[in-house]
Amino acid sequence: MTSRKPILFRLMAPHIAPAILALVAAAALVPIANLAFPPDHALHVPTGTVVLVGKWLTYALLAVALDLVWGYCGILSLGHGAFFALGGYAMGMHLMREIGPRGVYGHPVLPDFMVFLDWEALPVAWWGFDVFAYAAFMALFVPGALAFVFGWLAFRSRVTGVYLSIITQAGTYALMLAFFRNELGFGGNNGLTDFKDVLGFSLQADTTRAALFALSALALAGGLLLAQAIVTSKFGLVLVAIRDAEARTRFLGWRVERFKLFVFVVSAMMAGLAGALYVPQVGIINPSEFSPANSIEAVIWVAVGGRGTLSGAALGAILVNWLESFLTGAYPEAWLFVLGFLFVVVTLFLPKGILGALRSLRGRRRAADPGKAPEKSPAGATQAAE
Amino acid sequence: MTITRRQALQMGAAFAGAFALGSRSAFAQGEPIKVGVLHSLSGTMAISETTLKDVMLMLIEQQNAKGGLLGRQLEAVVVDPASDWPLFAEKARELITGGCAATFGCWTSVSRKSVLPVFEELNSILFYPVQYEGEESSRNVFYTGAAPNQQAIPAVDYLMEVEGVERWVLEGTDYVYPRTTNRILEAYLLSKGVAPEDIRVNYTPFSHSDWQTIVSDIKRFGSEGKRTAVVSTINGDANVPFYRELANQGVAATDIPVVAFSVGEEELAGIDTGPLVGHLAAWNYFMSVDTPENQAFIDAWHAFTGDTNRVTNDPMEAHYIGFNMWVKAVEAAGTTDPDAVIDAMVGVAVPNLTGGLSAMMPNHHITKPVLVGEIQDDGQFAVVWETAGLVPGDAWSDHLEGSKDLMSDWQAPMNCGNFNVATGQCGGA
Amino acid sequence: MAHLARTSIRLTRSVLVALTLALVLLAAPLVSTPVSAQQASTQDVETILAGFTRGQFPATLAAVDALAASGHPHAAPILQALSDRRLVFETASRRVLWQEGGQTFDALTGEPVAAPGPTTDVRVSNAVRRAVQTAMASLTLRAPNPATRIEAAVSILRARDLSQRAALAEARAEETDPNVQRAFDDTLAGLALVDPDAPEAERLAAVERLTARADAGARALLLSVPADATDAVKAAAAEGIAAIDRRLEIQGHVQNLFFGLSLGSVLLLAAIGLAITFGVMGVINMAHGEMVMIGAYATFVVQELMRAFAPGLLDLSLLVALPLAFATAGLVGIALERLVIRHLYGRPLETLLATWGVSLILQQAVRTLFGPTNREVMNPSFMSGSLELFGIALTWSRVWIIVFALAVFLALLVAMKATSFGLRMRAVVQNRRMAASMGIRTPWVDALTFGLGSGIAGVAGVALSQIDNVSPNLGQSYIIDSFLVVVFGGVGSLWGALVAALSLGVANKLVEPLAGAVLAKIVILVAVILFIQKRPRGLFALKGRAVES
Predict the structure, then answer these.
(1) Nearest residue, CB atoms, B97 vs list A46, A180, A328
(2) Is residue B69 domain-shared with residue B170, that is, in the same domain?
(3) Which among B10, B57, B135 is the top mutation candidate for probing chain A, defined by the most A β-carbons within 10 Å of its own β-carbon?
């Protein structure tokens, strides 16, 4: 096994460091390119692109969160979209409250959809969301709490493998149906829309957009660092042990369910943060974000990018979404063929995903050159153990 | 398989291309005018929206055959928002920044809500062709489908007056359109003296497929002596199993008629309508309406699709009206500049397919006739009743507490989508 | 093609109508005498017919009643034509005509009209249809067909048409068919109850009769006992209503149970193929729903072909579709296994990714081939309508689907346990290496097993095409439920899938009346999630070493 290295060294692993650098650079440069250069300048980045890539960055954070539990702990959650959506709803509720009396009906407190569906008063669940700090806290707390309750039940009773996957799917499906219900008071099928501003800044202003982009990039960088810190710690080694042989780890005396629970909660909170950053950028949150297909898509991003590589998951999310965005515009009638075919091809020919393939390519080159020994990373070590 | 350097380069080029799309906005004179078509071609809504994409292509082709617009050809830009609501917003931005002069699109309310801020921010024009719950009026959107007062209320009047219905089942899919429509209808029925216990409201999830319990409840509710009708706002693909269950449990139209607001020719195409004869639907257009305009439209549609079995329906007519209005407004304004076109739109009147002249009103809704049709055994509707004249669409319902004081007028000097006549202010933003 | 078929259906229907009419016409002169004292003059009939040309429903309704009472010799065909929307009038001359079998007849004279001018349809509402039914009832109380006579009695009762009481009593005296007698007696009882002139004894007897009938219609009649009735009658009626309510409640429970079993068998059908591909082979088969969809589209294609080439055998189309759907979906499954899944054994989670891609491709392929809209798959006659059993209406389509689901389950069970292929399949699943060394060609067993699971999904599609949309989204709407059923029942256990599907169906239908359809579904999902905490391997957990893997 690897010797313990200083934390900074561990965080700056070769597949993480470039990603962090790129994200920090993007957070700094893209807003400048968008705001400082006039639209016809060669270096200008159009606002549309800022919004689009900002959205992909939040997806990437969700993918990193999912990779943390799936790639390193073997928990294949088919319901991670639920945590993302819950974080999004928390932020959406704040943005709704911030509209205040500027809604179409001019009601001082109630959001528009409550006025025309005849709600008498603000439901308890909405209390406090006018305070940004509370909403931000809830965006992390609610997904975390749900993950805690769900994980506490499931891991303690040793629900594993496909059973766990399917009940996470059932969970997000149940939440979707619940949020579709107008009685629940979260806007039903339409969800929450018509946001005006956040912390006093107009959501339609280019500066706000650029700021949200920078925040998303930094959040993704932070998420990558946190996840990398977890998986390269001693704690992370136990996680990998659980992934590869849960029963043996338990027999060695580790309280497997506690490790799983911790990492599941952290991952859910990361997903919640991603959702909270997603909503102000796309301007809508609605129950279809809970749909099981969305969670499956997130799993696919991770698989395409490379399971158990963290930065690969982020890369996969951005690539798949970019491809989808490009194809739906360029080949509206045939894009599903291309995307579906791509998924099949990736599974068959790139079993470790894009990053995994790149890495093994590099590994082969290094092996051919006896001067350099292949570098060991925890992920690489575990893949050998499989 | 590994990615070669060349492939990587190609992908990079495509990547850059996707980005560059955003920055291309100006076009030279003589270049075609781009028209955005924003309808889902995959996912759950493809079943309804694909037809609307086709009808837009047909209308644009026809216009080009007539010499185009302002001496320029029209070019349809089709994208697939894939029944994914945030993707709708993304694609709307792509269309507008890609230079589309106007966009025709959306079906569900949530997709419209999703793209609305984009159209307002980038100041472009959206034509929305589907009947909806109202309670909205945007300067950048033209609503060519029916508002509740152009569909639901006349249909209920028909049932009350002609069929003598006293008991009501309001059956809907649980989303905003049925919720709002049913609230409006409930208030309306109560104001007509219907007892609260004679109104039963029930909601089901999207794509609900097991209707056994609900249909047997409806049967029971309808067998208690008073004449009963079902007002259905059941959405799209839940209708086939619903009507099948009605037919199998023997709910005949003569006993308990069902009047639907979301069932048109296209939805009936999947059902054997033999046992459903006599059930009703309320729309502003039926394929069976016998006018020369409609015949020409149907013939063109059959020729365009190369399939004489293809049906036409109400949202298609809405696009027909909306497109012709846009053409007229652009001609009047002499430019496709959104501000000029938006100003020129109000007051534009074009023939609809049912023999009338539909006009765009200051609240960006249009005037339409309301027709009640009976399902026939060939999957068509036969008109049994229509309003005497055209009904103007009402953006804000008079039957809802919050919205009855609001009005919308996008002409100067008011220029407001939600003017509150009680406070005398343009409410909200 | 669909158009042609519809026309032929319409033709057969109009032939039937014409036959009934002919019979009615024969009987009409007999019965019209007691109804109308004297025949109306031609002038009167002309005035009556003019009522149809006003384009107003009240005028049409009045014309229906007047025409039925007029004794006009062509009243019956005219009324029937009105009800079927075959009554028109010449737009210019306002001459009323009816169309029948491709010919047009003058409503006044009954003479065929060779070349009518442009015509306008007489509009029909359901109220007009009811009026026609009631009016026709007086003409058909002695129709030769017992079903027609029963219908006549029922529509008199529905209209509570007291004027028919005497005629009905007369007809009852001559009636010999026991079923018709019962219907006539029911109607007479109902009329006696609401007739203000009926004596108390008669009303009491009526209450008793209706209480014994004990259905919703009888309850409605008992509810409308006139205010002038004596206290004894009112008390008896109230008691009768209470008794009927008790009975209806029990019936409601039985019916709910049936609904639950039927929903359960739909779930079973949807899941049973997955119980093989996922349960037995361990492939997280996201394309399972699309196999169901392929089966449904195979049914559609078979029906279209039979419409074109063998319209007489259309009722048998499902039987033809079954093997074809099995073969089509099975072949697609085998192709999928050979091309993709075989490379992924030992990597079960990655099958999710690949099959998800395949499901996107299949959906889009069907959308491209058949269009995005619903396709019409008709119900054969044996699957239409409902079966009345102890006052409970069981729809035939649901009954057959329950039977069919159980048959498929049994067939699969036999295939797994009693055939040599089943033996090999189980051997491969339990110990691949050992099976291979015993000479079993494991790759082919894998392919055939996957083909079997897919084929069964296709067969399920035939059944589901009878109750649901046939659209490219068909598969997506069942996939989540299918996985839930297999996991709840215990991965790898066929019996588990059966018990899980039926219990989920019944539980759903028991909760639905209390909580509504949406909440019921949520409650069931949460219950399954909690249940899995109690039994992490589902209802029928496999035991042994394989469990840990």
Answers:
(1) A46
(2) no
(3) B135
- The answer to whether residues C392 and C419 touch, using CB atoms and an 8 Å cutoff, is no
Mean of all residue pLDDT scores within chain B: 89
Instruction: Indicate the DSSP class of residue A19.
Output: H
User: Model confidence over C169-214: pLDDT tens digits?
Assistant: 888 888 888 888 888 888 888 888 888 777 888 888 888 888 888 7
CATH number at residue B248: 3.40.50.2300
Question: Which among B373, B417, B341, B351 has a CA at the least distance from the CA of B138?
Answer: B417
Asked whether the beta carbons of C426 and C243 are under 8 A apart, the reply is no
> Is residue B133 located within the same domain as residue B270?
no
B159-214: pLDDT as tens digits: 998 888 999 999 998 888 898 899 899 999 999 999 999 999 999 888 888 898 89
For chain A, give every domain's residue range: 7-385
Q: Count residue pairs from B and C with Cβ separation < 8 A.
A: 164
Asked whether residue B154 falls in the same domain as residue B140, the answer is no
Residue with tokens 């030992």: C346
The continuous run of DSSP H or E covering C289 comes out as: helix C288-309
Alpha-carbon distance A315 to B140, whole Å? 37
Q: Helical H runs in C71-199?
A: 75-83, 126-140, 146-159, 165-174, 178-194
Read off the pLDDT band of C469 (50, 70, 90): confident
A interface test, pick of B5, B179, B262, B405 with most A CB neighbours within 10 Å? B179
3-state SS assignment for residue C95: coil
Interface check A332 vs C, CB under 8 A = no
Q: In this structure, which amino acid lies at residue C195? A: D
Pure H helices in chain A:
7-11, 17-35, 47-73, 80-99, 112-116, 132-156, 161-180, 206-232, 234-244, 246-251, 256-282, 292-305, 311-330, 335-349, 353-368, 378-385
According to the model, what pLDDT value does residue B4 have? 47
| Closest alpha carbon within chain B to C57 | B162
Q: Which residues of B touch C509 (CB under 8 A)?
A: 212-213
Task: Give me the half-sphere count of Cα atoms (radius 13 Å) on the Cβ side of residue B177.
Answer: 28
Query: Alpha helices of C469-493 — where are they, by DSSP H?
Result: 476-489
User: Which of the four CATH numbers 1.20.144, 1.10.3470, 1.10.1200, 1.10.8 does domain A7-385 have?
Assistant: 1.10.3470
Residue at token pair 């019979």: C23
Question: Do the domain assignments include residue B22?
Answer: no
The residue from B334, B367, B400 where one domain ends is B367
Check whether residue B248 and residue B332 sit in a common domain: no
- Subunit partners of chain C (3 or more CB pairs within 8 A): A, B
Closest CA to B428 of B394, B401, B403: B403
Question: Is residue B203 in a domain?
Answer: yes
Helix (H, G, I), strand (E, B) or coil at A365: helix
Give yes or no: residues B140 and B155 share one domain: no
CB contact under 8 A, C348 and A162: yes
Whether B117 and B256 share a structural domain: no
B270 plus B314 within the same structural domain: no
Determine the residue type at C394.
L
Q: How far is C483 from chain A (nearest CA, A)?
A: 7
Task: Say yes or no: B264 and B385 in one domain.
Answer: yes
Please give the sequence-ordered ranges of beta strands (E in DSSP) within C228-318, or none if there are none: none
For residue B413, say if its preceding peptide bond is cis, omega within 30 degrees of 0. yes
